[in-house]
């Protein structure tokens, strides 16, 4: 295998390894985003409960004000009852009193209902607060794990980029340009091995002549079907005991 081809094979393997980090990075960030969404959803539920409790408390306060007003109204009606002289006036006061008492009963019932509802919501609020704390802890752990993983990946990438730069500095620029041109459409399969006389990029069989050229490895050979750069994998000799 000539030097240019060796460099291309090595460069291709490095590029493939560099690109293989993308799914790992995506998986790490995806886990963090997933945990973050859980925290946001829990926080939203918590905020909703707080808002509902606050709304109920405001309604209770309003009903309590109404009770005060209605109590004063009933006192006033009783005083007027002592002063009325006609049946018509007595009947009007009686209707007014009945309406006031109905409103008073309704206000008391609503205060009781809203109070019970808030008791339930406060229990849920406590549970939701604990869940949120657990989810926040899980998010922090996921962020720490992701940060550690990404740091390790960056170190590996830095080492590979250094290797890549060293190879590129030594390479013939025409050969490099040719490789990059193929890589634009072929990606990590720009340089592929030949196995069983077939290109392992398009998996089509190559001719005997092309295969013979690949075996000799004296020059850069491309697949006649897909245009990828071909090479023959070196087989390591088994070490005798």
Describe what this molecule looks like in 3D.
- The protein has 241 residues and is mainly alpha-helical.
- It has two domains: 23-153, Orthogonal Bundle (Helix Hairpins), CATH 1.10.287; 173-231, no CATH class.
- The chain has five helices and four strands; from the N terminus they run ααααββαββ.
- It has helices spanning 3-19, 21-83, 87-170, 173-186, 208-216; strands spanning 191-195, 198-199, 221-222, 229-231.
- It has a four-stranded mixed sheet.
- A hairpin with a 2-residue loop joins β1 (191-195) and β2.
- α1 runs antiparallel to α3 (87-170) and α2 (21-83) runs antiparallel to α3 (87-170).
- The longest helix has 84 residues, at 87-170.
- The radius of gyration is 41 Å and the shape is rod-shaped.
Amount of beta strand: under 5%
Question: What's the CATH first level of the largest domain?
Answer: Mainly Alpha
Return the CATH topology of the largest domain. Answer: Helix Hairpins
Count of DSSP H/I helices: 5
The biggest sheet amounts to:
4 strands, mixed
Q: Outline the low-pLDDT stretches.
A: none
Total number of domains? 2
N-to-C series of helices and strands: HHHHEEHEE
Mean pLDDT: 92
User: What's the CATH architecture name of the largest domain?
Assistant: Orthogonal Bundle
């Amino acid at each position: 295998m000539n030097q240019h081809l060796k460099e291309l094979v090595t460069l291709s393997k490095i590029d493939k390894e560099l690109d293989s980090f993308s799914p790992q990075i995506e998986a790490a960030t995806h886990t963090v985003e997933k945990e973050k969404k859980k925290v946001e959803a829990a926080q939203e539920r918590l905020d909703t409960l707080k808002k509902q409790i606050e709304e109920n408390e405001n309604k209770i306060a309003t009903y309590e004000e109404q009770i005060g007003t209605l109590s004063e109204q009933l006192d006033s009606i009783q005083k007027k009852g002592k002063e009325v002289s006609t049946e018509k006036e007595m009947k009007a006061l009686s209707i007014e009193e009945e309406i006031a008492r109905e409103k008073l009963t309704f206000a008391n019932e609503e205060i009781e209902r809203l109070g019970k509802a808030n008791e339930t919501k406060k229990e849920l609020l406590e549970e939701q607060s604990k869940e949120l704390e657990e989810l926040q802890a899980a998010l922090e752990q996921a962020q720490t794990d992701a940060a550690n993983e990404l740091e390790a990946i960056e170190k590996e990438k830095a080492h590979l980029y250094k290797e890549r730069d060293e190879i590129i500095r030594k390479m013939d620029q025409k050969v490099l340009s040719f490789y990059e041109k193929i890589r634009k459409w072929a990606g990590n399969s720009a340089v592929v091995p030949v196995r069983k006389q077939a290109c392992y990029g398009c998996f089509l069989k190559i001719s005997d002549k092309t295969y013979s050229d690949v075996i000799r490895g004296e020059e850069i050979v491309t697949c006649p079907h897909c245009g990828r750069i071909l090479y023959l994998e070196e087989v390591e000799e088994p070490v005798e005991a």
